[in-house]
Design goal:
alpha+beta, extended, two-stranded antiparallel ribbon
């Protein structure tokens, strides 16, 4: 893997931070158009794709149809750790769609937000994954 400096910041004429990475730009046929660093380096996209996953919903008029506000739109494009303000937005989002938390399929861990306490641990399976009921105990 070859990483290259992508961002260089200075403060008072001194280097403060250098961000290294690799980036590639390809056309619809997969032809490499431009790159910095190793264009073929593989990585997990993780949450970086969430805005792209929300795009068809937005282009299809979903936000207007469900009358979503900026906070709800932001939640569609982001990760969160189960803080109360995010749980409240999820509840509002589900209500706007006429759905409940029972429709959610949560990931393989309990919320990171420590203030959820033991309630967030209820319903864990022996494999370490959460059931829908477990991940919504804090709701």
């Amino acid at each position: 893997m070859t990483w290259t400096p992508l961002i260089h910041t200075e403060r008072a004429g001194l280097t403060e931070c250098v961000h290294f990475g690799a980036i590639a730009v390809a056309d619809a046929q997969g032809r490499l158009l431009a790159h910095a660093g190793d264009a073929h380096w593989l990585t997990f996209t993780r949450s970086t794709l969430k805005p792209f996953q929300a795009e068809p919903f937005l282009q299809g008029g979903g936000a207007a149809h469900f009358k979503l506000d900026d906070a709800q739109l932001a939640l569609l494009c982001a990760s969160h750790n189960g803080e109360a303000k995010h749980v409240a937005q999820v509840e509002r989002l589900l209500a706007a769609c006429g759905q409940s938390h029972k429709r959610l399929q949560c990931g393989c861990h309990v919320p990171y937000f420590k203030e959820l306490g033991v309630e967030g641990l209820k319903g864990l399976t022996t494999s370490g994954t959460t059931t829908a009921a477990a991940s919504t105990q804090a709701f």
